[in-house]
Design brief:
It is found in: Membrane. This is CKLF3 protein. Pfam families: MARVEL. It comes from Onychorhynchus coronatus. By secondary structure, the chain is mainly α. The protein has one domain: Substrate Binding Domain Of Dnak, Chain:A, Domain 2. It is 73% helix and 0% strand. Helix 4 packs antiparallel against helix 6 and helix 6 packs antiparallel against helix 7.
């Protein structure tokens, strides 16, 4: 008679696609997950609205946040040392916060349909989330620059 397999071992291939729990519990993992979810919601709202011309920015930010989420979760930042990941992440967050703030103001003030208003409100929330992310990343960059060595900050090695 065969022993039944444990519940976690039933589908090891599917389990490898999910990010580790420690990354999902980290501040960086939660910020990247929130950024990608908000960007996707904003993208859907812009598709359904009269302000469909703004849909490219949330789509690009969704794809970039999703890429960085899985890159940090699978520790690609430790494998590819040629790229300075915190600086890339900082520049992405700064530009995303500025772009979301600008298009949210335009969507709320120029368009009268509900989907545009919802996209604008979610855009303001996304601006805050991206601003928090670039503040945290900026502090990591400052601590790295004060150290004066060429290794990435410790906060991004483990995340």
């Amino acid at each position: 008679m065969e022993e039944p397999e444990p519940a976690g071992a039933a589908h090891p291939g599917l389990r490898s696609l999910l990010p580790p729990r420690e990354f999902l519990g980290s501040r960086k993992g939660q910020l990247l997950l929130a950024e990608s979810v908000l960007s996707f919601i904003i993208f859907i709202c812009y598709i359904a609205s009269l302000a469909a011309s703004f849909m490219m920015a949330p789509l690009l930010e969704f794809l970039l946040a999703l890429f960085l989420f899985f890159a940090y979760a699978s520790k690609l930042n430790e494998k590819f040392k040629g790229l300075y990941w915190p600086l890339m992440d900082f520049l992405r967050c700064v530009t995303a916060a500025i772009i979301y703030f600008a298009i949210s103001i335009a969507a709320v003030s120029k368009y009268n349909d509900g989907a545009s208003k919802a996209a604008g409100v979610f855009g303001f929330v996304a601006t805050i989330v991206f601003a928090i992310d670039f503040y945290v990343t900026f502090n990591d960059l400052l601590s790295f620059l004060k150290q004066g060595n060429s290794d990435p900050p410790e906060g991004h090695k483990s995340e």
